[in-house]
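Re-run with default settings, no changes from the original entry. Doing this only to confirm the output is reproducible before filing.
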Amino acid sequence: MEELPVIDARSLFRKNTDELIGLLRSLSREQWLSPTCYPEWKVKDIAAHLLQSGLSRLSRQRDKFPSREPLPPLSFDKVLEFINRGNDHWQDMFESISPELITGLLSLSEYELCTLFENLPLSGQAAFSVSWAGETVSENWFDTAREYTERWHHHQQIREAVGAAPFNQAEYLYPVIDTLIRAVPWWYSKISAVAGTQIRIEITGDAGGAWTLLRDNENWVLKSGFSKTSAVTRVVLSADTAWRFLTRTISSEKATDLIQFSGNLQLAKNFLRVKAIMMND
């Protein structure tokens, strides 16, 4: 087992943006209104959400123009409540805005984001913490990687909704998996186990990998790879299932049939609580 490496996702934003904007420009009006994995959101709503989140980050992080007084560190539930209110407001506000305008605005904001992240150092305190990993302060690299997963998985949800081929080559999907899996320790933080307990997490496929969740004297710690001593408790799933489940593109109920659990099933199946996105199940 090894310490988790720093993830450098900075160079990945531009290709993802090229593919997203190219897709949106090709869609018919009917495709813009296609239902998505979210019951209340159509393709147009996901695109508007990407626009909202991108403009917010550019305004607050690049331009140092917060929309309100700085928020103190908040609990997961409080952050979730704050995000949901913003999403609902933005969805209502953009109900009457055309797909053409949304695409034009996204083509501006998304490429501005590419430039922001490409020029951001990996070290240093991030503008936003990664709440789904239980952090109230995060490093730049983790916040940047989290933002890449956000834009990549919403892009994939749009592609799936309109029947477009997935953009899931390993060079783009593996960094998503490697980022999302880091939510696991926080979602196990209230689970007790004796020191030395190991849970092996294996994600199969070209974009997959191997991780070990290890209980030390006080906490659960995620390591890269497997130990020489085989873990009795195992969680095995495909890379396709992993990104869909961890972003709740599919529900935990649906994921239950797609994930293999063995060993201590109580420990293993707690994995079904893990999510790397700020949303309700």
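The chain has a mean pLDDT of 92. The first strand starts at residue 198 and ends at 204.
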